[in-house]
């Protein structure tokens, strides 16, 4: 269970919400409204000026390493090293969650996005859409991470990619996961049997 209680900053005021398993929170707001800032606070990358973030009824600051091992945060810029190929990037990112993954496992995650032929290509040589798919492959590779925090994850994806990501999130929620997302696109999870919340900033 994730809880945000009375969070305040110079941008955001009195933000409170909770998220249980099978639940998805969509954060809405114009550019500059503070969506990315809020996600960074939730993920523990930015400290709130006041209020608290709790995971399983304990402050995340007191269990930050454990909390980070149970979540995946993908910012609006793909967290990839340009001189490394897709497989190298995924194995490195999995290590951030304390997990060791093999080349075969990374290749299988990339295959979901149709990137099998690009696995040895340096990421800097890929298109923006391809880089985004590499970053999103992390969602398929890392295990036991119930909380997904996705900031504009649909950016640079074509129609097929948008649907693939929608399906991936729906499956994650159906398996008892949680997701916090921001997007300017239609997320299209309305047909899911899971609970969807909205937070407007």
Topology:
Layout: E1 2-8, E2 15-19, E3 23-28, H1 35-43, E4 50-55, E5 58-59, H2 64-69, E6 71-74, H3 86-96, H4 103-111, H5 128-136, H6 138-141, E7 147-151, H7 159-174, E8 178-182, E9 195-200
Parallel strand pairs: 3-8, 3-9, 6-7, 7-8
Antiparallel strand pairs: 1-2, 1-4, 4-5
Comma- or semicolon-separated keywords:
201 residues, 4-stranded antiparallel β-sheet, single chain, 23% strand, alpha/beta, 7 helices, Rossmann fold
Tell me briefly what this model is.
The protein is α/β, with parallel strands linked by helices.
| Cα Rg | 17 Å
Distance between the termini: 22 Å
Shape category: globular
Helix content: 25-40%
CATH homology group of the largest domain: P-loop containing nucleotide triphosphate hydrolases
Q: Judging by the overall fold, what is the CATH architecture of the largest domain? A: 3-Layer(aba) Sandwich
Mean pLDDT: 88
Q: Strand-and-helix sequence, N→C?
A: EEEHEEHEHHHHEHEE
Percent in strands = 15-25%
As laid out across the biggest beta sheet, the strand order is 6-7-8-3-9
Helix tally equals 7
Q: Total number of β-strand segments?
A: 9
Low-pLDDT sequence parts = none
> What composes the largest sheet?
5 strands, parallel
Number of domains: 2
Report the CATH C-level class of the largest domain.
Answer: Alpha Beta
CATH topology of the largest domain: Rossmann fold
If you had to describe this structure to a student in words, what would you say it looks like?
The protein has 201 residues and is of the alpha/beta class. The protein folds into 2 domains: 1-70 and 146-201, P-loop containing nucleotide triphosphate hydrolases (Rossmann fold, 3-Layer(aba) Sandwich), CATH 3.40.50.300; 82-144. It has 7 helices and 9 strands. The strands form 2 sheets. It has a 5-stranded parallel β-sheet with strand order 6-7-8-3-9, with helices on both faces. Helix 3 packs across helix 4. The radius of gyration is 17 Å and the shape is globular. The chain starts with a strand and ends with a strand. The model has no long low-confidence stretch (mean pLDDT 88).
């Amino acid at each position: 269970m994730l809880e945000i209680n009375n969070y305040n900053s110079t941008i955001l005021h009195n933000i409170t919400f909770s998220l249980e398993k099978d639940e998805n929170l969509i954060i809405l707001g114009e550019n500059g409204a503070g969506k990315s800032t809020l996600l960074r606070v939730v993920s523990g990358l930015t400290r709130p000026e006041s209020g608290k973030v709790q995971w399983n009824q304990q402050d995340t600051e007191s269990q930050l390493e454990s909390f980070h091992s149970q979540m995946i945060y993908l910012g609006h810029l793909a967290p990839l090293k340009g001189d490394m190929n897709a497989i190298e990037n995924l194995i490195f990112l999995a290590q951030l969650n304390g997990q060791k993954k093999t080349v075969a496992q990374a290749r299988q995650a990339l295959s979901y996005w149709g990137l099998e032929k690009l696995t040895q290509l340096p990421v800097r040589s890929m298109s923006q859409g391809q880089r985004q798919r590499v970053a999103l492959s992390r969602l398929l590779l890392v295990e036991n991470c119930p909380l997904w925090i996705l900031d504009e994850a649909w950016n640079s994806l074509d129609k097929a990619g948008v649907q693939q990501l929608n399906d991936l999130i729906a499956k994650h929620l159906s398996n008892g996961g949680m997701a916090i997302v921001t997007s300017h696109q239609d997320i299209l999870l309305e047909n899911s049997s899971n609970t969807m919340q909205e937070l407007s900033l």
